[in-house]
Specification:
It is built from 4 helices and 12 strands, in the order αββββββαββββαβαβ. With 197 residues, it is an alpha+beta fold.
């Protein structure tokens, strides 16, 4: 485990550290890097450095090429909304999301909404700490603006209770920020995301 407070900015760090396949590197400048190769994600604890990996980096201070992500916590209750189901293991997946959702299935249940008999919106929790879980929502392009993100996110939030949801969104991802606000999330913190090289 790691000696970090259980707060939204560290939910990925706690989740990575709890996974037996994670790696840990103590860097010369005193920074600790926690990484997960399947997720291609690394969290830097301390001064930001470029690891020279093809992983997306999360850090509390900016790196070159990084973007600010706004972290949100739920300010109230999300109503239970019908329409989402637990995604069956044999459900077809959109090609561009297949690898991510196949991995997400190893992390817990995925909740989905269907359009014309095909899964079109997905919500899952790839990372958890003792208190929080990270909300991930994907909606296929042809099903956007239909309210499906609200439905799948609501199902996930209720299924993961009593853990508290954390919503992270790139400051330029206006659709994700609107969805977070619609569900009742309020901005509480920020992290910086440097895409993989």
């Amino acid at each position: 485990m790691i000696d970090l407070p259980d707060v939204p900015r560290w939910v990925e760090a706690h989740g990575i550290a709890a996974d037996p396949t994670h790696w840990r590197r103590e860097l010369p400048n005193g920074t600790l890097a926690l990484g997960h190769d399947t997720a291609r994600l690394a969290v830097l604890i301390g001064e930001p450095v470029d690891l020279g990996t093809s992983h997306t980096l999360l850090t509390t201070t900016p790196l070159p090429r990084s973007t600010r992500a706004i972290l949100h916590e739920l300010a109230g209750e999300v109503p239970e909304i019908e329409g989402a189901v637990r995604l069956p293991d044999d459900a077809p997946l959109p090609d561009y999301l297949a690898a991510e959702l196949t991995w997400a299935r190893t992390r817990g249940a995925i909740y989905a909404c269907y359009v014309d008999g095909e899964p079109a919106a997905f919500a899952y929790a790839p990372w958890r700490s003792a208190t929080y879980f990270d909300v991930s929502v994907d909606v296929i392009p042809s099903a956007r603006q239909m309210g499906l993100g609200v439905i799948v996110a609501s199902a996930l939030i209720h299924a993961e209770a009593p853990l508290r949801p954390v919503w992270g969104a790139d400051e330029h991802n206006h659709a994700s920020l609107r969805l977070a606000a619609r569900l009742g999330f309020q901005p509480t913190d920020e992290i910086w995301v440097a895409p993989s090289s």
